[in-house]
Amino acid sequence: MKKHWMNVLVSAAIATGAVAIIPTTISDFGALAIPGQTAAAKDEEATIRQLTQQWFELWSPGKDPMDWGAMGELFAQDPGELLVFDDAGGKVVVLQSWKDYRTTWEPFMEQFTDWQVKPEGEVRVIVEGDLATTMFTLAGGGIDQDGKAITFRQRGTHVWQRVGDRWAIVHEHLTTDS
């Protein structure tokens, strides 16, 4: 799984014929469709969509505790196989392993008695061989221990890599809308 995550963006640009187009925002991609996509490719796209929906559901525990075991199943586990850039609270958090991800976000989530996120609009999916990219906008928020409500909106990208019969997130980038 050591293949650099940027390769999927280049592969996606080549696969969609958008090599000469450098989008400046996620919305510049529009709806991505690969002409002549095979049934197998459509199945892979459906799998990535389902896994992305699972990620949203796991980040929406409501009043229940987060299921970190299930969340971990979505991510690459070995050190050096995961790179995360998440913008949270005015800071960019850079994480380089599933362990870092969990030890960063678990204490954060323990501050809340309720938490939900959901996609806004279409989740865009590109699958090219053993790499896939999802691009989305999410809205969410929660209630902290003092009863204070917070809301936020983020744009996100996940890069997935297939190893054997398992897809895993190898890169996450979330940026808070201003």
TrEMBL record:
Q: What is this protein called?
A: SnoaL-like domain-containing protein
Q: Which organism is the protein's source?
A: Acaryochloris thomasi RCC1774
SUPFAM superfamilies linked to this entry? NTF2-like (SSF54427)
Annotated transmembrane regions: none
The SnoaL-like domain sits at 53-168
What InterPro entries does the entry give? Answer: NTF2-like_dom_sf (IPR032710), SnoaL-like (IPR037401)
Q: Which Pfam families match?
A: SnoaL_2
